[in-house]
Automatic annotation (TrEMBL):
Claim: Transferase is one of the keywords in the record: yes
Polar residues: bias regions: 425-437
Pfam families per record: CoA_transf_3
Xref: InterPro entries: CoA-transferase_III_domain (IPR050483), CoA-Trfase_fam_III (IPR003673), CoA-Trfase_III_dom3_sf (IPR044855), CoA-Trfase_III_dom_1_sf (IPR023606)
Protein name in UniProt: CoA transferase
Spans traversing the lipid bilayer: none
PANTHER family membership: SUCCINATE--HYDROXYMETHYLGLUTARATE COA-TRANSFERASE (PTHR48207:SF3)
Gene3D superfamilies, A to Z: Crotonobetainyl-coa:carnitine coa-transferase, domain 1, formyl-coa transferase, domain 3
Single Gene Ontology MF annotation: transferase activity
Highest taxon above the source species: Bacteria
Keyword field: Transferase
Transferase listed as a keyword: yes
Amino acid sequence: MDQPMPQQQAPAAPPAAAWKGPLAGLRVLDLTRVLAGPLAAQFLADLGAEVLKLEAPERGDETRGFAPFVEGESHYFLALNRGKRSLVVDLREPEGAEILRGLVAKADVLIENFRPGVMDRLGLGAAALMAANPRLIYCAISGFGLTGPLAGAPSFDIVTQAMTGVMSVNGAAGGAPVKLGLPIGDMSGGIFGAIGILSALHERSVTGRGRLIDASLYDGTMSLLGYLSQLAFITGQNPQPVGSAHPSVVPYDAFPAMDGAIVIACLADQFWPRLCTALGCPELGSDPGLATMAQRRERRGEIEPRIAAITRTRSVAEWQGILEAHDVPHAPVLGVQEALAHPHARAREMVVEVQHQTLGTMPVLGRPLKFPGETQAPLEAPPVLGQHTEEILRRELNYSAAQIQALRERGVIDRGTRPHAPAPQTENGPGSVTGNS
């Protein structure tokens, strides 16, 4: 006699998936290298998008070869590629181009930062890919943009800073032009590239169609000139460098302390008398000839040396306590290590730990945008070169193990894993180091 079947228990409900972010479900193809493009794609990954990073054979993103390294992994690459999936695909091979076309069919966004014309010569330009997928948002990030007399010219961050006037206003008064320590030219390309993509996604939700985005380091950086551009328009003169000071606001500078420097920023007139009381010179705060910003600007040469003489008498920590008590905007001038270790940085989750495939637990910068009321899924580590090639080909394009092995043997995918091999000086091909960064 048959035994009765044991009663099966209903499987336990899977745990609720962590919220990935507002871009969850969005797929981004990242064909970029170095800084501007990878930064734009990383912002989208931070917001929950799935970012597939297609890298060139053998060396991958050029920054994989930028020293210093930690167990073979470049600090530069690690900083700009968190949360991505890495595939090594040779787009110059017909089968590699076919892989990209297959991924494009299921993608929402493609970002590339080759020189204008490179993708067209491969048959993978915006017109061709958007014809195959009309919903595709194609973001081209370049040094000078897709039009104009400098379109196609090579450009890197320092070139952008020089061409947009940024270097001319940076540095000490009367000194030589100085590049900003932050690569603002490259970063502006990444920031405005991401903004363009997000705006195009909104438009697509209405029209159902994608769009080509022309984002350039040049345009983005020039747009950040802000009030300096208007100053030049109005006065007909070039704004000059003033070190850490402000051309119109006094005091607004870094002042010496016994053991470092303290920033004091009186951007509104209400802070001036508070500062003077904190510094022990209340008579300055009540001087009617120093009551307004314009008046203090005219007497900069008198005010700033007097403040500096006072701030030299105490430590940074002492001034922090005094200025805080008087509600004066201020800050210690921190080194990068100190900034990363600051309690506020930790409280804001601007430094988090991730699990890297080869490095194990490692710190990375956190997401710059927060969404109160939601707990976003933990950040994922930057990928090692080609870490996800096979996984993506199997999952997204249904390639068999035999097909993947054949492509690998022919060097179409996963060709070499030498991230520190010198990048060849190719003229304009994918991965070219002669194009914009």
